């Protein structure tokens, strides 16, 4: 009856907060079902493949967080495909370099695509976003974009540095 609803809701809240529920590693990925999905899943999986397939599972999840944080922010397109493809075809306007590098987007490593596809599915299905502290930007440690001096750095995972836009309301 009536106690069952709150009891289930309470268990759900606890399980989402439990550290083991937030650990994203090879064991977590192995437990995820084979993934597939529609266009938004495809866009996220491809972005993860081209941007983070060589990273740890945590690194892949972190890049997915950035994309989904942008979708939710109101400052970017409101779909995964819109975010991933924003600026494509415009010189120096791409948000994700693989969409403007002039190379065909060829999935040459099916095993890697299956892995990122699982991450994409889990993230689109509501996995917690706890790794990047709301990051909307990232770059590899090999480059230093101008915006990196302006935004708040929220962390480093693998070769990627993560940042959150924090627009100041007062001038310096």
Give the helices and strands as they follow along the chain: HHHHHHHEEE
Contiguous helical run count = 7
Q: What is the average per-residue confidence, as pLDDT, rounded to a whole number?
A: 83
| Residues in β-strands, percent | 5-15%
Radius of gyration: 17 Å
Quote the distance from N terminus to C terminus. 59 Å
Choose one word for the global shape. globular
From the helix content, strand content and strand pairing, which structural class follows?
mainly alpha
Strands of the widest sheet, in order across it, are: 1-3-2
Parts with pLDDT < 50 across at least 5 consecutive residues:
1-21, 168-172
Number of extended strands: 3
Largest sheet: 3 strands, antiparallel
The helix fraction, in percent, is 40-55%
